[in-house]
Amino acid sequence: MAILITIISEPGYSNRSTGRTDDRLSDLFRTKAIMTQQLLRLHQIIGCKKREIAPMIPVSRSTWMDGVKTGRFPTPIKLSERVTAWRAEEVFALIEKK
Questions:
Q1: Hey, which of 39, 58, 68, 92 would disulfide with 85, CB 3.0 to 4.6 Å?
Q2: Cβ contacts of 40 within 8 Å, gap of 6 or more
Q3: What is the pTM of this model?
Q4: Nearest to 68 by CA among 54, 80, 52, 84
């Protein structure tokens, strides 16, 4: 099993070989709150049979997204166009509440 490690530099990091500033990761550093909180992806919350991840909250994806829209489940954080996550503390609070 291979492990991929990505090192994220701070915004404005200058690449010495090209002299260009690396702005691709600037969205990750737009707030300190995102960097300091533990975030969970949807497959970690509702489980994934393919990845053999047991659900924390056993509901379907559509039920989860409907609950987010109605306010029953926590609101997500968009990390990028295709990456959405939820604050772990809000998910754990929901589990304790039920």
A1: 39
A2: 56, 85, 86, 87, 88, 91
A3: 0.62
A4: 84
Mind listing the pLDDT tens digit for each residue in 76-94? 999 999 999 999 999 999 9
Closest listed residue to residue 24, CA positions, set 77, 76, 78, 80? 80
| Domain boundary assignment for the chain | 26-97
Structure tokens at 97: 């509440």
**How many Å from the N-terminal Cα to the C-terminal Cα in the chain?**
37
Per DSSP, the residues of 11-51 read TTPBPTTT--B--TTGGGGS-HHHHHS-EE-HHHHH-BTTT
pLDDT in tens, 31-90: 444 445 799 999 999 999 999 999 999 999 999 999 999 999 999 999 999 999 999 999
Contact between residue 79 and residue 70 where contact means Cβ atoms under 8 Å apart: no
